[in-house]
Amino acid sequence: MLTLSNIDLSIQRVPILRDVSLDIETGTTCGLIGRNGAGKTTLMRAIMGALPVEKGAIQFNHVDLHTAKGHERAALGIGYLPEDRRLVPHFTVEENIMVSFWATKNTDMARLKWVYDLMPEIGRFADRKAMTLSGGQQKLVALARAMVAGSNLLLLDEPFEGVAPALAQRLMEVIGDLHNEKLTVLVSESDYTHSQKVVDKVYAIERGQISLMNNTKAA
Q1: Residue 50, burial from CB neighbour count under 10 angstroms (0-12, 13-18, 19+)
Q2: Which end of the chain is more exposed for a tag (fewer CB within 10 A), N or C?
Q3: Is 42 helix (H, G, I), strand (E, B) or coil?
Q4: In what order do the strands lie in the sheet with 55-60?
Q5: For the chain, domain boundaries
Q6: pLDDT tens across 32-57, in order?
Q7: Start and end of every ABC transporter domain (predicted)?
Q8: Distance from CA of residue 143 to its chain's centroid?
Q9: Contact, 65 vs 73, CB < 8 A?
Q10: What is the CA 62 to chain-centroid distance, rounded?
Q11: Which residues of the chain have pLDDT under 50?
Q12: Which CATH class is domain 2-213?
């Protein structure tokens, strides 16, 4: 489904990603493990088109993403949860989730209902302003927004960072549910604490270079 081939990317002439290659098969959950500054966020942003690659190719369902416009990727069913959430503070929870519908002119509300069914707590504070939520609750909302857009692929950048243990566990339960539904997911973490039980394959990233780790999924 998603293939990165020999990607190089620099920011202000500083090399960040170097000869990065990875493959994520349809319906699998893949981990991307690395310390802060290793290149995880840069890789995610490159897939989403927020950063241009200098060399190599990114393909999604045989579409060349590295030549596609950034806004075209949402229409391909790619959802993205950024590390810093990027919610609109004065929007309600539901308005933040609906942003992807408005951007893609999608009128199928079944996807929204699916998200509320999967995360009923989101529905309970759907009318609250995003700015009134805790950091962990905001992560849930950002995940819901990504899930609405990501009918084919979800990119989750450090979803557990800065979240209280109880909400981190809840996030992990939701990601486990996505795995059971055969949605394709790439999730990054700094220390592999939370996602170990649900990932099918793990890549390690260090100083902008990637290596494939052994499959360590727990039974």
Answers
A1: middle
A2: C
A3: helix
A4: 14-24, 2-11, 55-60, 63-64
A5: 2-213
A6: 999 989 999 999 999 998 999 999 99
A7: 2-219
A8: 8
A9: yes
A10: 20
A11: 218-219
A12: alpha beta
Amino acid at 6: N
Which pLDDT score is estimated for 107?
A: 72
Q: Residue 52 has which token pair?
A: 């241009």
Long-range Cβ contacts of 139-142 (<8 Å, 24+ apart): 139/81, 139/85, 139/163, 139/167, 139/171, 140/167, 140/170, 140/171, 140/174, 141/85, 141/87, 141/93, 141/96, 141/97, 142/81, 142/82, 142/85, 142/86, 142/87, 142/96
pTM, entire model: 0.89
Q: CA of 203: how far to CAs of 5, 33, 182, 215, in Å? A: 14, 6, 19, 9
The alpha-helical segments, DSSP class H, found in the chain are: 40-48, 93-104, 110-118, 120-124, 135-149, 165-180
Long-range contacts of residues 207-211, Cβ cutoff 8 Å, at least 24 apart: 207/18, 207/38, 207/39, 208/15, 208/16, 208/17, 208/18, 208/20, 208/38, 208/39, 208/42, 209/18, 209/19, 209/20, 210/20, 210/21, 210/22
Longest Cα–Cα distance in the chain: 47
Q: Nearest CA to 155 among 178, 134, 135?
A: 178
